[in-house]
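Cross-posted from the bioinformatics board.
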Amino acid sequence: MFLKFLRSNISARSVHFEFRMSPELVLGFYKRVGLQTNFSPSLESVCILIHVMIRSRRYDDALVFMNNLLQTMGYSHLDVLEGLWDSYNPEISCPHVFDTLIRACTSFGDMNSAHEVIINLRMEKGFHVSVHAWNNFLNHLITSNELNSFWKKYTEMISCGYTENIYTYNLVVYALCKEMRLYEAISMFYRMLKVGIHPNVVTFNMIINGACKISDIELGLKLYRKMGIMSMEYISPNSITFNCLINGYSKLGNMKSAESLKDEMTKMGIKPNLITYATLVNGYLRKGCKKDAFRLCSHMVDKGIAPNNVVYNSIIHWLFFEGDTTTASAFLSYMIKTNILFDKFTNSILVTGLSRNGYLNEALDYHKWLVGKNLVDKDLFLENTLVHYLLRSGNESTLKVKQVLDDMIARGLSLDSVTYGSMIDGFSKQGSISNAIRVYDDMIKEGKKPNLVIYNSIVDGLCKNLSVDLAKIMVDELKKLGLFDVVTLNSLLNGFCANWNINEVLNLFFQMQEGNLVNEVTYNILVNFFCKIGSIQEGREIMEMMVANEVAPNSITYTILVTNAFKKSKVGCYSREKVIELHDDLMVKGVKPDGQTYDKIVGPLIGEESFEIS
DNA sequence: GTAGGGTTAG
């Protein structure tokens, strides 16, 4: 009878009753006949099974059946909806079944179908899905970063007269935090209090995380400390609260505070978890403190927490970043040996890490392998990375770039603005402005509009290829269109400097100051220019001006000054002692020295000195 | 439900 039922040769209504009491039996039968060849149950029969499963609260099994219908059997979401609607039996079925269909759609990211189900039920059948279904739908929109769509659909939900619950309010807070609208998120918190919905620890955590993400740790800490008072002692922080704050400090490089928060949570009886350690390890690596990072790794192992792929990805990324490909490979091998799976982060870290360290052929091979295994996203990130580094590796790589692009096109993908931008910039930097222009023309032919970044590449290319006059004309045109920023003007300024055109340099710099379009790059360009055209002293004066205008000198400022001073010392225009004195002065001013410059210039100078003294 | 890792064009 069961087989007959599955092929719907007998009345669905009559079997409803037969099966509703024993979902186990139904599932067992279904699985057994499923193994037979030519087995193809009708839509109606599967829909009845779904009703039975929902009735007995076996939501996961119901989801599996729905996925079967939608994914393998090729029914559309609306087919399934009709099937469920037609086989709906008020004595047995629950309205909840339609919520589950929406969950099935969102679970594989098909937000449009999910919405169509909601609309169809409302418009055609006068049925309103539950607020939970809406919440699930809205949550998926946020997690897939479709925030515009989120707000539109949220408004739709409200206008249908739904009453928001705590989950809905939290979603709104979440969305506001994601859009970095922190103060609106906080006012949402008060609105919740006003309408009698108690914010919970999730609400707090999301706002605290939002504060940390915009680097306002003080605010995050304040909220954490006031959690008790603000909730009449109902809510206390959990591990997520601490992890958010620890992450905030780690991103800012303040590892001391990050670690003391870890101690604080431990004292409160909240155990640091895998995420706590992963966050701290990443924070130390970001600062270049490998020793501390590895200390925490062994600490976590001692506590019985094994590092996972996230921790390994982090380690490998930062090792590649500082050029230590040997140790990076060692960790990769260890990852493979201990069966820790690669994910899309690992793949991306590998392709970028190999490329930026000059292992372009290896990067290309690995990428090819990934394509073969169908493990590459459609977002062109890896391809654009390859194009970028290939073009920077010299002009013999043009053929390989072509290969990457051809493969891309063969896979049905087309170049995006980043591909074009990377190529235009790469060719400009190689000095082959004709190729850059060819790419630009292709881009226009493809109907793609150039953006500011691309215009800036071209301006920079013109300046670097000694056509500053042309660049100036172009910038004037861009200004008329309002299409320029500090980067555009920095390129032009740099071009004037390269031509030793002091009048234009000063003129443009004053204009930039007036327009408040000055950043640390602007000053670095000028520091370099005055070191070359004038004296180290003049360069240092520009730096003083930089500090006075509250722009912090960075490691590039350091390199510019120290390198220029050293060059002058070699031709006897500057003493070696003064180079060291310059270094000391920069250190006192809090300028971060550049490691390479220090090792190459200052270190040896100091070594020589101390040798002479001893 | 909220927390951790990567990033490509000036």
